[in-house]
Amino acid sequence: MHINLTGHHIEVTDALKSYVDNKFERLARHFDHVINAHVILSVEKIEQKAEARLHVNGSTLFADAVHEDLYAAIDGLVDKLDRQILRYKEKRHNHRSSAVKAAE
């Protein structure tokens, strides 16, 4: 998975980059058909925001999270994306199994 990391009003440090890479490895463990991910980290006064857009086969998943701590926002973002990926995987599996039953 190719991760494109961008910062708005924040400098993307090596620590942030490695933290995002480690967290997104969890997503790759569940679903390895992610083509690329675009992650945007931004700061607006007190709020730290993390948002991501994942491109998978035939679909795009989007999630964002806002928290006072940027690392907590990244954790929330990955949790949301993880749930979306599992739901997407289940939809694909159910669609395939219903097509096989219809063919029989």
From TrEMBL:
Q: What Pfam families does this protein's entry cite? A: Ribosomal_S30AE
Q: Which keywords does this Swiss-Prot/TrEMBL entry list?
A: Translation regulation
Under the heading SUPFAM superfamilies, the entry gives: Ribosome binding protein Y (YfiA homologue)
Q: Which GO terms describe its biological process?
A: negative regulation of translational elongation
SUBUNIT field: Associates exclusively with 100S ribosomes, which are dimers of 70S ribosomes.
Q: Which family does it belong to?
A: Belongs to the HPF/YfiA ribosome-associated protein family. Short HPF subfamily.
What is the protein name given in its UniProt record? Ribosome hibernation promoting factor
Q: Which organism is it from?
A: Caldichromatium japonicum
Gene name tied to this protein:
raiA
